[in-house]
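Discussion board: Methods & Data

I've been asked by a reviewer to show the raw model output for two of the constructs in my manuscript, not just the figures. I'm not sure how much to include, so I'm pasting the format here to get opinions. Each protein appears as its amino acid sequence followed by a line of discrete structure tokens. Is this the kind of thing reviewers expect to see in a supplement, or should I convert it first? Here is construct A:
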Amino acid sequence: MAMTMSLLRRVRQVAQWLLGSWGRVLGALAALMAAGLAGAGLFAWLGVYNVAASTGHFRIVDHFLRFGMENSVRARAPSESLPAEIDENLVRLGAGHFHAGCAYCHGSPGTPISPVAASMLPPPPVLTDRVDRWSDGELFWIVKHGLKYAGMPGFPSLRRDDEIWAVIAFLRRLPALDRRSYRALALGEVEPEPQRGAEIATGQTEADAIGACARCHGARQGPPSRLVPTLHGQPAVMLENALRAYASGERDSGVMQTAASDLTEPAIRGLARYYASQPRPAAPVEPRDPDAVARGEAIARDGLSALGVPSCLGCHGDEASPLYPRLAGQPAHYLEGQLALWRSGLNDRSATGQIMAPIARRLSEVQARDVAAYFASLAPAAEARR
């Protein structure tokens, strides 16, 4: 018994010593942390560190930041990748957004990075020799979320992964492009006219909003990408409402928000009148499944009463209200994509989106594809109601 009590006292003494030691260690660590925080605060308060972008980082700081950035991206990037054969429609859509939202900082084939952008810290890289260093998923994460402390913004709409993948598809094509092939993809029909010396000197001309839209939607012809709607001959009222919804963020689209956010009301009305007055081009030639077209026609004409789906032609026929788009001759890829957005819970905040979203959710994926095939098979009417 005495031996047991002696052993217990010894254990207690050891425990007290350990607790005392750990207490001293923890106290020392707390003191060091407090001193470190006080030193950092004093360092910042005195302004010792030069934050000027013109001075650059210390080499070791630059290496550390890059090392941390690369590992952060790789730790968070998705595993998805583009298919082996990239859809040309996806490339063309991505090219239009790159030209509008990315080329100023990163340059483009034949056009160097702006001196202003090149003076950023870190300077934005020339992407033609950088994109191969990243996987598709890593590029996707960077384009979607941007990079802190690098001036790289996130994508305007974080919910539109389909548009972000279009940019990645274009970036994969970018290293193989020269000035001519880049302009063919990014500008399409648009051929900017050279300004006269007086116009350059006095700034008498503004950026052509119609030309900016025509990069993706076409001017004399329809859109070069089948993921983009044909605007020619659409009702002006519908076009105005759509532009306002994109500009306000009621409709989710990083591509269209970039294009519409700076438009004034007169510009919106002018653009709508311009496209409403244009003759509707012939529908693009697409392979069609006659059975799918027939099934889609039945839904478009009669609806699906058991599912609460009304006739599509009631709102989207050529004699319907000018509040709604005409769907005859629209690309099937585009129509499928729009129905998929509504079915996934996107684009349901605008007035027309609140109508379409619940209807689209009642359609199966196959039914949505059939309806798209039907409308794509139709020849567009010569004019729509203005």
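Construct B, same format:
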Amino acid sequence: MSTTPGPLRTALALAATGVPVLPLRAGKAPFGNCHRCANNACGGRPNMKSAGPCRCPGVCHAWAAATTDSAVLTSPAWTTAWRRAATVAYHPGAAGLTVVDLDNAAAVAWARETLPATRAVPTTRGEHWIYRGAMSSHNAVRPGVDVKSTMAYARYLGPGTGAMTALPDAVRALAVKEPSTIRPTPQAVALPARSGVGECRHRTPAYLDRGIAMAEQRITEARSAVHATVYRTFLAVLSTHGRCGCLTDVHRMRLFAAAQVKGESLRHCTDAWTNARTTLGL
């Protein structure tokens, strides 16, 4: 009789098809970071939304731990986790997939009327619709609907039924925020004035524009830890340009736009900006 835990057998079968997998605890939650990676000690994020530079042998960093490497999946640290696992999860984006998570009957009815048919997997309260193709992940794109692809994990609940179809524009459009019809007049952000005399050097257009352009580039070139990169970039911009009143809504909107291209929501951008100001006491 095999002593391999049931979830591990499922995980190995999925990994053999090229789908990166990881174990989930009861409650659909990933295993927490090990003590070496706790509290951001390894450079990852403490809420495990993105991977750090750490190469921990344990089941760390949530979705970023997902792997197809059978040697890793059957290593002692992972085997211990599999014995405690409640179910198997996978990283859809790394497998070239997108999961539209329909959380209730109303969401399923909307999908049937709106989206192209594809492979469907029953869930506890609704269905997972799986498309071939990857995109950025977004929660609550409409009532009861999440999109899980890159930088996210989804539970494996069986092979499902129906032929898998290519990711349609209708799903990609769910992640696109409708642009505001209001065009705000650029205004200086209300920040404490810099002490001292003389003209502020930031009012030289080339100096300020170069700083904003460098910040945009830093965000655009991020390949991992996008949330952390956006926050650190906002923090750097505000620490340099935030106390003299030279930053305008136009500058802030440029940075937000760069972050949104990388998959950040407007709410995440606003929160990161606010947290950076709070950290600096602005």
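Answer (T.O., handling editor elsewhere):
This is acceptable in a supplement if you add a one-line summary per construct. For B, something like: The longest strand covers residues 97-102.
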